[in-house]
Design goal:
- This protein is an all-alpha fold and 108 residues long.
- It folds into two domains: 63 residues, lambda repressor-like DNA-binding domains (434 Repressor (Amino-terminal Domain), Orthogonal Bundle), CATH 1.10.260.40; 32 residues.
- It contains seven helices and no strands.
- The termini are far apart.
Length: 108
Amino acid sequence: MAPVTKPKRQRRAHFIKEWREHLGLKQDEAAARIGVTQSKISRIENGTTPYDQDFLEEAADAYGTTAAALLTGIPGRADDITSKFNQLNNKERDQILDLIDFLLSKKS
C-alpha cells in the first residue's frame, strides 16, 4: 500500500518581523537576545521554518511583549484597535467583524 501524503499545512501569519523592526533591531541583534542564530530568525520571519512555543516565549521576552502579540498584533496598533473595538456595542462589533470577513474574502 502506498503511503498517504499529508497536505502541506499553511502556516499561520505572524508579526515577529514587525515587532523586531518596531524595536529597531537587526536580525543578528534579535538573535542574540533570543538565543538563536540569525539564520533561524530569517527563516522564521520568511515562513520557511515554523516557529515553536519556546521560540515565541523567548522572542516575546526579548521584545518586551507577549507571545500572543507576536501572533496577532502589529506593534503600536494592536492596543488602539482593541481599545476602540471594546467601546462598541454588540451590533457594531458584529458589523466590524462582517466587514473584516468580507475584506479577507476579497484577498483570496
